[in-house]
User: What shape does this take?
Amino acid sequence: MAGKVKTKAEAPVPQGSDSKGGSGGFLHGLLTVLLSILIVLAVFGGAFYYVLKNNIYNLGEYFRPRIEKTPIIRHALPPLPAWEDPDDPKHLTQAELIKKYNEYRSDKADLTLRLEEANRRIMELESEKERLSSLKDEAEAARLDNEKLLEKIEQERAQLQKEKEEVAQIIARGNPEGLKDYFNRIDPETAQKIYTDIIKQEAADQQVKAMAKTYAEMEPANAAAILTELTSKDTDLVLDIISLMKSDESAEIMENMEPELAAELIKKLADRNIKNTE
Assistant: This one.
């Protein structure tokens, strides 16, 4: 009997074991329910994402104003229509608005600097244009004066040539040897020097005339380039060459020179002619 009683006293051990099994079953059931809910939510979320992303039944555009500024979720929205401006403030978050604002400020500052530089350059070009226009007017006025002066010189040269021929005829009809003896008696040294200078001058004049003819037959631009280079070495020779050309020939050549150089040559020609006529 005592052995049977002891066996009944040890019976509560299996009861405790059944209690743990019931608790484990409850947790398993709870996890199953939670997992099912997560699966349903995932399926629902995926379906919702698909519907929004593909704008089915226009639901993407319908929900756009409500979720386009919500991080993460906004990525489910379809791309903006072609007629919508992606930089429109209504489509941007606060952070994006601040970023765009800073970008616009930076661009504005850069454009302002570039505009100021462009305006400064425009003013410089306008000033240079006015200066060149003034030089052009001066050169044109000098050219016209030079043409008149060259025409006058040609007339005077023709008159002098005529007078020279008349004197030569008078001498030829008279007594040239007597005229020579006369100069020799008055001042033999001076007479010899005068004859020598005349011969040299005539030779030099013939050479300058040949050069003037050569340059006159060249292209005006080429002749202008050569005479410009020659001016730095022998300005008087350039003046002699130009003075022996026809007015229209010298005018074409000077038009192809730098305005400053042309004006300088015209002034020197005028000064020389005035000095010769005094």
Summary: Residues 94-173 form the longest helix (80 residues). Confidence is low (pLDDT under 50) at residues 1-11, 13-18. Residues 44-82 form one domain.
